[in-house]
Amino acid sequence: MSLPAAIFRNDKSARQLVFDRPADVIVAHEAGDFGPALEAAQAAHDAGKWLAGYFSYEAGYLLEPKLVPLLPNGRRAPLVCLGVFDAPVEEAVPPRDTTATNGPIFDARATWSPEDYEKRFSRLHQHIRQGDCY
Hints:
By secondary structure, the protein is an alpha+beta fold. The protein has two helices and six strands. The protein has helices at residues 31-46, 114-129, and strands at 5-10, 15-20, 24-28, 50-55, 80-85, 89-92. It is flat, with a radius of gyration of 20 Å.
């Protein structure tokens, strides 16, 4: 497999989609490059291409006009980086040598009541709708 590449793995189905050898790579490092990158991604999609990559957390600032002035300086990663592919290859997931674990999370349990959850998330959703956060 060459780089850059992206793998989307589904352990339940034991299948994965592998995106390898992009025909192009769309990258935006600065706010001024973000709009053209979105347009290039849309054009690739409209042409029947597949896109795989990422949008950085900070790219979210550019999706809400109210937050654009708050875009942090000194970022080390691109705002967006998308490979343009003809199609992914579907493969079987290679078998594991060991049993999967739940990582550092053991016996996770909710500590909020359903009422507390509803109250707190209603407030969060209100802030999202108002553009205070995303």
